[in-house]
Amino acid sequence: MTSAPYGLSRPTLDDARAAVLRVHAGDGARIWNDLLRTAGLTGNEPAGLDRMLAVMHDADPSTRLCAVAVKIRVTAYTQLAAAHSIL
User: Superkingdom, according to UniProt (predicted)?
Assistant: First the structure.
């Protein structure tokens, strides 16, 4: 199937960025840029999410919580996509 399962799309690097910016408010942009640098990413990589999540997981507790939340979304999407493909 080519359509997104249940109208959902897999979380992206932009979703991780949005989570960091929400949680860290005024420091969000600086923290995001630090995370990008640590991950060796520019922020434009379509397949950079897994690497970013690993870096976020090793960061401060709030950023780690963001990583866990995004990972939950990735897992939910993956499972729903698998279920959708067999229906």
Answer: Bacteria
Residue-wise pLDDT tens for the chain (87 aa)?
346 777 889 999 999 999 999 999 999 999 999 999 999 999 999 999 999 999 999 999 999 999 999 999 999 999 999 988 887
For 1-34, the DSSP string reads --SPGGG-----HHHHHHHHHHHHGGGHHHHHHH
pTM of the model: 0.88
DSSP labels for 51-74? HHHHHHHTS-HHHHHHHHHHHHHH
Q: Which secondary-structure segment (H or E) carries 80? A: helix 61-86
